[in-house]
């Protein structure tokens, strides 16, 4: 399925991304030249990880008639340099109520960890090709496991 988003620049560093019936706005903090009216792209990226796993957790609970209304999830980014850290680490901190069925924790975790966003980051080797006026000008590929370890 081919999905196309389009991006425009309403003002300053604000971006407006449209896809179908939906619009997404991003901006940068004031100390980085923006106006701080929306998530910056990095925080949006982190939110994608968190929300993808959260939706999968909710789907699992719904399928198993489990109350998930009191579950909270936080994402901690341990990345110091998000431009060059070769092994970025993120912690997903899930808080469940005391009365949550213990026998459901492991299968629920397996289920919600299999979200498309995390799989894209950890299992796949995405390729991003940039075209300018229909001419290919750059290709970015994720390093394969052997390349990351210097083999």
UniProtKB/TrEMBL annotation:
Segment forming the signal sequence: none
Query: Can you tell which superkingdom this protein's organism belongs to?
Result: Bacteria
Which InterPro entries does this one have? KH_dom-like_a/b, OsmC/Ohr_fam, OsmC/Ohrsf
Database matches in SUPFAM superfamilies: OsmC-like
Q: Which PANTHER family match?
A: OSMC-LIKE PROTEIN, PROTEIN INVOLVED IN RIMO-MEDIATED BETA-METHYLTHIOLATION OF RIBOSOMAL PROTEIN S12 YCAO
| Protein name, as recorded | OsmC family protein
């Amino acid at each position: 399925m081919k999905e196309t988003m389009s991006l425009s620049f309403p003002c300053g560093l604000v971006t407006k991304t449209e896809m179908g019936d939906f619009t997404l706005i991003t901006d940068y903090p004031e100390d980085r030249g923006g106006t701080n009216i929306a998530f910056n792209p990095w925080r949006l990226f982190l939110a994608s990880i968190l929300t993808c796993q959260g939706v999968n957790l909710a789907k699992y609970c719904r399928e198993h008639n489990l109350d998930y209304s009191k579950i909270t999830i936080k994402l901690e980014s341990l990345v110091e340099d998000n431009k060059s850290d070769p092994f970025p680490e993120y912690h997903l901190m899930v808080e469940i109520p005391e009365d949550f069925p213990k026998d459901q924790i492991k299968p629920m975790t397996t289920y919600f960890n299999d979200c498309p966003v995390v799989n894209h980051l950890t299992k796949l080797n995405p390729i991003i090709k940039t075209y300018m006026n229909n001419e290919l000008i750059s290709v970015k590929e994720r390093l394969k496991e052997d390349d990351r370890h210097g083999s």
